[in-house]
């Protein structure tokens, strides 16, 4: 017997008509996202970026031990840490920022995570802090980088096969690097808070070393990209374009929050003007801490009523207003599909850091029953959270390309990411050594990467929402640790609050 089609009741007809029109326009509604799955994968990504001796519980098993002689040429142990992106260099400045943001993710949203994912996230933080502790283990020295980037970028080879020069770059009192030392202080202080319950002794060790790193940064002031001993290695890749002053305030702010020590509060109060706290630069990332600093310090004004910090809250408000499209002071650029866009490449780093600040500030406002006055509109916590959700949903697939920009999440995601270890056959599948230039055919092939770097978030589409999945287009197809680090906190929030 043929099936009889069900009758459609009249109240449903307008809805069905709307869905048909949306489908015809190519704007079909998207399924709800599995934020917990995305969270798990965003943390797993960091295992693919590990350098050093991998542990027995390493889950991305196509990776192997690498960089086992790092530091040897300087007579120190610098084994471990993270590769920043798709290359095999260990850049200390973005690695410290990555560690800070992973730790801040746990400080604000770790309590929302399932226990297993919290353990994985703490392991990711510890992999960063274990290395950072090594970089400051020798008096009056901070080791800021391992690997000659020009020679490394001239090769396409697995980390496990590295045979390029592992040059060690160091800052000293005579040739300082306040931004790297200040960011290292921030990372260790933030991590001390993340470990306070799970490992109190380790938390105390981190806090003590954070204070020591900050003292070095503040005593011997100067930018590491002005340092003749390291400039050739760090520029143009992670050159400090915005000065070291924001990192001094950032490090002091984290030490204040982690220790409640009044000396760091005094430092922020007494040095804010001279260190540019009132510059109100609406950016946040590995090089520029202003927007993040304002949000972080605002917490103490909002919850502790420290009136001398009111200007930080005003600057944080101003930043939030630039993000709200209906605000008269909005000036952040969006793609036609709704993604925050800043020219320069690796755009997703701006998306994830800004989404993190939106959620964090929303929490601070909600706890104190406050809103943001954007002139012609009052903006509350719910509005900030909606803004953050729109960005993360776009990243996960609600975009004109209908592609997830997180590798391994969803049905469609980038297959040809700009990443050496992912694009070359693993040691397990190809045990023979692959020399510097022998990897070029793997780079040039149009085939998908053989090793899936689960959780990696690529640089993302251009200002027109277009993405070509091209390994050579590194500005769009390369993942970085500092894209993923703030995303861990964002996804933890939405996994616990999906609607």
UniProtKB/TrEMBL annotation:
<keyword id="KW-0378">Hydrolase</keyword>
<dbReference type="Pfam" id="PF00759">
    <property type="entry name" value="Glyco_hydro_9"/>
</dbReference>
<protein>
    <recommendedName>
        <fullName>Endoglucanase</fullName>
        <ecNumber>3.2.1.4</ecNumber>
    </recommendedName>
</protein>
<dbReference type="InterPro" id="IPR012341">
    <property type="entry name" value="6hp_glycosidase-like_sf"/>
</dbReference>
<dbReference type="GO" id="GO:0030245">
    <property type="term" value="P:cellulose catabolic process"/>
</dbReference>
<keyword id="KW-0119">Carbohydrate metabolism</keyword>
<keyword id="KW-0732">Signal</keyword>
<comment type="similarity">
    <text>Belongs to the glycosyl hydrolase 9 (cellulase E) family.</text>
</comment>
<keyword id="KW-0624">Polysaccharide degradation</keyword>
<feature type="active site">
    <location>
        <position position="469"/>
    </location>
</feature>
<dbReference type="InterPro" id="IPR033126">
    <property type="entry name" value="Glyco_hydro_9_Asp/Glu_AS"/>
</dbReference>
<feature type="signal peptide">
    <location>
        <begin position="1"/>
        <end position="30"/>
    </location>
</feature>
<feature type="active site">
    <location>
        <position position="418"/>
    </location>
</feature>
<keyword id="KW-0136">Cellulose degradation</keyword>
<dbReference type="InterPro" id="IPR008928">
    <property type="entry name" value="6-hairpin_glycosidase_sf"/>
</dbReference>
<dbReference type="InterPro" id="IPR018221">
    <property type="entry name" value="Glyco_hydro_9_His_AS"/>
</dbReference>
<dbReference type="GO" id="GO:0008810">
    <property type="term" value="F:cellulase activity"/>
</dbReference>
<feature type="domain" description="Glycoside hydrolase family 9">
    <location>
        <begin position="35"/>
        <end position="491"/>
    </location>
</feature>
<feature type="active site">
    <location>
        <position position="478"/>
    </location>
</feature>
<keyword id="KW-0326">Glycosidase</keyword>
<dbReference type="InterPro" id="IPR001701">
    <property type="entry name" value="Glyco_hydro_9"/>
</dbReference>
């Amino acid at each position: 017997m043929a099936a009889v089609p069900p009758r459609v009741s009249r109240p449903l007809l307008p809805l069905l008509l709307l869905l048909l029109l949306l489908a015809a326009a190519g704007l079909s509604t998207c399924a709800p996202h599995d934020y917990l799955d995305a969270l798990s994968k965003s943390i797993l990504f960091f295992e693919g970026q590990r350098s050093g001796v991998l542990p027995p519980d390493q889950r991305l098993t196509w990776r192997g031990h690498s960089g086992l002689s790092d530091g040897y040429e300087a007579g120190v142990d610098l084994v471990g840490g993270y590769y920043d992106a798709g290359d095999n260099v260990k850049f200390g400045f973005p690695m410290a920022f990555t560690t800070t943001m992973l730790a801040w993710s746990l400080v604000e949203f770790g309590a929302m995570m399932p226990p297993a994912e919290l353990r994985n996230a703490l392991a990711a933080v510890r992999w960063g802090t274990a290395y950072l502790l090594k970089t400051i283990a020798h008096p009056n020295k901070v080791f800021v980088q391992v690997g000659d980037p020009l020679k490394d970028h001239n090769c396409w080879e697995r980390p496990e096969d590295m045979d390029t020069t592992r040059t060690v770059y160091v800052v000293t009192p005579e040739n300082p690097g306040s931004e790297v030392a200040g960011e290292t202080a921030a990372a260790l202080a933030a991590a001390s808070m993340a470990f306070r319950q799970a490992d109190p002794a380790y938390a105390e060790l981190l806090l003590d070393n954070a204070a020591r790193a900050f003292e070095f940064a503040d005593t011997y002031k100067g930018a590491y990209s002005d340092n003749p001993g390291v400039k050739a290695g760090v520029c143009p890749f992670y050159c400090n374009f915005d000065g070291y002053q924001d990192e001094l305030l950032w490090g002091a702010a984290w030490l204040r929050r982690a220790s409640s020590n009044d000396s760091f509060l005094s430092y922020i109060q007494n040095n804010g003007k001279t260190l540019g706290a009132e510059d109100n630069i609406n950016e946040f990332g590995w090089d520029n801490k202003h927007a993040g600093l304002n949000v972080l310090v605002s917490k103490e004004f909002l919850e502790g009523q420290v009136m001398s910090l009111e200007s930080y809250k005003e600057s944080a408000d101003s930043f939030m207003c630039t993000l709200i499209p209906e605000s008269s002071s909005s000036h952040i650029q969006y793609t036609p599909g709704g993604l925050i866009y800043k020219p320069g490449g690796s755009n997703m780093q701006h998306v994830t850091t800004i989404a993190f600040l939106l959620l964090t500030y929303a929490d601070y406002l909600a706890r104190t029953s406050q809103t943001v006055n954007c002139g012609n509109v009052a903006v509350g916590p719910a509005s900030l959270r909606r803004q953050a959700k729109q960005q993360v949903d776009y990243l996960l697939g609600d975009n004109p390309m209908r592609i997830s920009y997180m590798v391994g999440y969803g049905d469609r995601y980038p297959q040809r990411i700009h990443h050496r270890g992912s694009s070359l056959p693993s040691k397990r599948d190809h045990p023979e050594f692959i020399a510097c230039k022998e990897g070029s055919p793997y780079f040039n092939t149009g085939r998908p990467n053989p090793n899936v770097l689960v959780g990696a978030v690529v640089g993302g589409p251009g200002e027109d929402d277009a993405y070509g999945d091209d390994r050579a287009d590194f500005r769009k197809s390369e993942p970085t640790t500092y894209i993923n680090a703030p995303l861990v906190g964002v996804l933890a929030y939405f996994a616990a609050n999906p609607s």
